[in-house]
Amino acid sequence: MAKKEKGGLPVWIGNTPFPPDNKKPALVTEPPVVTVYGIGDEKISPRVWVSTDKILISEWIVPPGQGFKPADIHGGDEPYYIAEGTATVVNHETGQVTEAKAGDCMLIPANCWHLVYNYTGEPVRIIAIIAGKVWEEGQKETVEKQEVKPRYYKAE
């Protein structure tokens, strides 16, 4: 199990490939940090290449017929580049549903709830960037404790 720092976050968050007080231009040659995100049967393994106090770059692969839960929220904007497949991105607070296909780029604004489903027979591969901290003060606890209530969704 990964070591935790203050606030219950793993020590690599904000310190990959180097800590904030040791910033320099760097070719990222270390293998990505492989994590597990999700609950129950809805778990995926994101790969994180960069996680500093200002930005995070990761790859998410969502298998066919699966999604990731719980819904997520971040203090910074989060663009998704859909490298493969078709992602159905849902904001369960508003009911907004957006379908993004391979080659599409989608922007999830800061402080916007979102989760991704893959309703197809092919994997979805997403390159995600978070501009800012992965979670602001208290956001991770909010994500972990949330209860997603059933809603009716509307296509955009």
Give a short summary of the structure.
With 156 residues, the protein is mostly beta strands.
Describe this structure in words.
The protein is mostly beta strands and 156 residues long. It has one domain (20-147): Sandwich (Jelly Rolls), CATH 2.60.120.10. 4% of the residues lie in helices and 37% in strands. The protein contains 1 helix and 12 strands; from the N terminus they run E-E-E-E-E-E-E-E-E-E-E-H-E. The protein has one helix at 139-145, and strands at residues 33-34, 37-39, 42-44, 47-51, 55-62, 78-84, 86-91, 96-101, 105-108, 115-117, 124-131, 154-155. The strands form 3 sheets. A 6-stranded antiparallel beta sheet has the order 1-4-5-11-6-9, with no helix packed on it. Strands 10-7-8-12 form a 4-stranded mixed beta sheet, with no helix packed on it. A two-stranded antiparallel ribbon has the order 2-3. Strand 2 and strand 3 (42-44) form a beta hairpin. It is globular and about 40 Å long.
Overall spatial form: globular
Poorly predicted segments: 143-153
In order across it, which strands form the biggest sheet? 1-4-5-11-6-9
The CATH architecture: Sandwich
The chain-level mean pLDDT equals 82
Number of E-type strands: 12
Number of helices: 1
- What is the N-to-C order of secondary-structure elements (H for helix, E for strand)? EEEEEEEEEEEHE
| CATH class wording | Mainly Beta
Major sheet details: 6 strands, antiparallel
Could you tell me the strand content as a percent range?
A: 35-45%
The value of Rg in angstroms is 15 Å
